[in-house]
Amino acid sequence: MGYDIERFVGYVNEGLLCSICRDVLEDPLQAPCEHAFCTACIHGWLVHHSNCPEDRQVIDVSLLRPLYRYMKNDLNRLQLHCKNRENGCEMVCSLESIDRHERECEYSQIPCSNAGCTAQIERRNLDGHLAVCEFRSRECPNGCGYTILSAEDTQHNCVAELRTELELLRSEMICRVEEAKHEMESRLDSQRRHMVQKESILQNEIEELKSQMSRLMSDVRSLMAAERQHRQELEQAELEKREL
User: Fold this and answer.
1) Does the pLDDT value for residue 130 go beyond 70?
2) Residue 118, pLDDT score
3) For the chain, which domains are there?
4) Do 80 and 92 meet the contact criterion of CB atoms below 8 Å apart?
5) How many CA atoms lie less than 13 Å away from 100 in the CB half-sphere?
6) Which of 95, 112, 124, 139 has a beta carbon 3.0–4.6 Å from 117's, enabling a disulfide?
7) Helix ranges restricted to H, 66-157
8) Helix (H) or strand (E) holding 139
9) 3-class DSSP state for residue 19?
10) Which of 93, 90, 99, 67 is nearest to 78 (CA)?
11) Does the pLDDT at position 237 exceed 80?
């Protein structure tokens, strides 16, 4: 649907009206036959038809194109009233800037920001509503630090709330202690397995060193026996030399 023509100030050229809804073009598209439509209007039309609603020429969604630049410029220069005119807004601005104004308009209806509240309030009155909204939250005036809704004032009990908070903290602490305990046990098990593995490796190395030492001692004894044999042979040779 287009913009209500009654909102516009002054004359609006016929070529800037949607051929389907007959309001001022909104997000316009143009057919090859140069008839213009609101995007929503022509898409809805083509769901059930395959021709232009003005001259019945065959058209398809793929044939639709943006409005000619000069027509787009004429459209953007049109002046119109804010949609909140009935609520008191007197702003008149160009079609090109109307969306930006209406997003920020002080007379626009916006939802209350408090959870649970379904009220719609004019933007300019929002602060006043928030100050008295029954769904507004605030800190307990008795000093317990709990955030309460105005609707819960009569049910709020500082002692009960603090006791609940304490129980939650105790439960959380117990969980954290258990997690730390499991993590420490896991680390100890890992270190224990690592130490056992290192001990096994060291034990194997010791056994290998013992085996090497045993072979070395055996070699030393063999060398000493060979030296004694060699010395005896030298002494025998010396005796024989003297006799000769």
Assistant:
1) yes
2) 87
3) 5-104 (3.30.40.10), 109-148 (no CATH)
4) yes
5) 5
6) 112
7) 69-77, 95-104, 126-132
8) strand 137-139
9) coil
10) 93
11) yes
28 phi and psi angles, rounded to 5 deg:
-75, 150
> Are the beta carbons of 35 and 55 closer than 8 angstroms?
yes
Q: What is the pTM of this model?
A: 0.52
- Three-class SS of residue 93? strand
> CA 166, CA 168: separation in Å to the nearest integer?
5
Give per-residue burial for 93-104: e unless 16+ CB within 10 Å, then b: eebeebeebbee
Q: How far apart are CA 145 and CA 155, in angstroms?
A: 16
Tell me, what amino acid is at 11? Answer: Y
Q: pLDDT digit string (tens) for 61-107?
A: 999 999 999 999 999 999 999 999 998 999 999 999 999 999 999 99
Q: What is the pLDDT of residue 26?
A: 93
Q: Quote the crossing angle between the two packed helices 69-77 and 95-104, to the nearest 10°.
A: 50
The pLDDT tens digits of the residues spanning 156-181 come to: 566 666 777 788 889 999 999 999 99
